[in-house]
Design a protein that fits this description.
It is a single chain. This protein is α/β, with parallel strands linked by helices. The protein has 2 domains: 116 residues, Rossmann fold (3-Layer(aba) Sandwich), CATH 3.40.50.1000; 102 residues, 3-Layer(aba) Sandwich (Rossmann fold). A 6-stranded parallel β-sheet has the order 3-2-1-10-11-12. It has a 4-stranded parallel β-sheet with strand order 4-5-6-9, covered by helices on one side. The protein has a two-stranded antiparallel sheet with strand order 7-8. Helix 1 links the parallel strand 1 and strand 2. Helix 1 packs parallel to helix 8 and helix 4 packs across helix 5. The two termini are 33 Å apart. It comes from Rhipicephalus appendiculatus. InterPro entries: HAD-like_sf, HAD-SF_hydro_IIA, HAD_sf, LHPP/HDHD2. Its EC number is 3.6.1.1. Keywords: Cytoplasm, Hydrolase, Magnesium, Metal-binding, Nucleus.
Length: 272
């Protein structure tokens, strides 16, 4: 267990596929207790998710109904980060997102859009809407493509479902644009959570079910990445051609038990 040789002072976790299975109204076995153990041990943790079919409030409520003791401020999501990015750069978005998160962008000027924001739009991924997004990009040389994460697929009700990544890739291919990724596996998204905990990346472990977005993204940001065999995990993920998880475990509980088995290091906090 080489990943345990260096101190772990904080934990980042994905939500869907780690705490609970998407589409199922129950927590993954041991995950509620695992979080309780972390909080009792006074180890800071945050949740970093590409969930774009729910607002933060909706997700927080859903997790509490499943028995999780979580504070809304501990959850980092793509849509609020994208809203700030758009506001700071005065972009006017065309939204190709799920109806539940459209309200996140209500304060943004959406007249004469000069950017496209793509999230997990589900049934909103129609030919008509994809073509409208295409025209926003090709009709304005200065327009930009923003994607809320870039996952290939996720697991819902026991089946794999296409995520936002393939739809973003279609727009990239059709417009010769490179999308700006706000969410995993983008390094800046991970850094938001690290800065909130005031911890260095080398002192934090990321636990997730997506070998590319969770594990690869975390490792690129300087963290250790632990892959769980729940959620969208597939056996071939253990032999990914370019990403080697620092550990592969049964579930969140096993990962947290290993973290807690370490001798607790002295807490180091970054200067303001």
């Amino acid at each position: 267990m080489a990943w345990l040789r260096k101190p772990i002072r904080g934990v980042l976790m994905d939500i869907t596929g780690v705490l609970y299975e998407s589409g199922e109204r129950k927590a993954i076995e041991g995950s509620v207790d695992a979080l309780r153990m972390l909080r009792t041990a006074d180890i800071p943790f945050r949740f970093i998710t590409n969930e774009t079919q729910k607002t933060k409030e909706q997700l927080d409520s859903a997790l509490h109904r499943l028995g999780f003791d979580i504070y809304e401020k501990e959850i980092f999501m793509c849509a609020p980060a994208a809203k700030k990015f758009i506001h700071d750069l005065n972009y006017r978005p065309f939204l190709l997102v799920h109806p539940n998160v459209e309200a996140e962008f209500a304060e943004c000027d959406q007249n004469l859009p000069n950017c496209v924001v793509v999230g997990d739009a589900a049934s909103n991924f129609s030919y008509e809407n994809m073509n409208r997004a295409f025209h926003v990009l090709v009709d304005n040389d200065d327009s930009v493509l923003i994607t809320l994460g870039k996952g290939k697929y996720y697991k819902e009700e026991g089946k794999l479902t296409m995520d936002v990544g393939p739809f973003t890739a279609a727009l990239e291919y059709a417009t010769d644009r490179q999308a700006i990724v706000i969410g995993k596996p983008g390094e800046e998204f991970f850094r938001l959570a690290l800065e909130d905990m005031k911890l260095r990346p080398e002192d934090v472990v990321m636990i997730g079910d997506d070998v590319v977005c969770d594990i690869g993204g975390a490792q690129s940001a300087g963290m250790r990445g632990v892959l769980v065999r729940t959620g969208k995990f597939r056996p071939e993920d253990e032999n990914h051609p370019s990403i080697r998880p620092d550990a592969i475990v049964k579930n969140l509980m096993e990962a947290i038990e290993r973290v807690l088995s370490m001798e607790r290091p002295t807490k180091t906090i970054l200067p303001e």
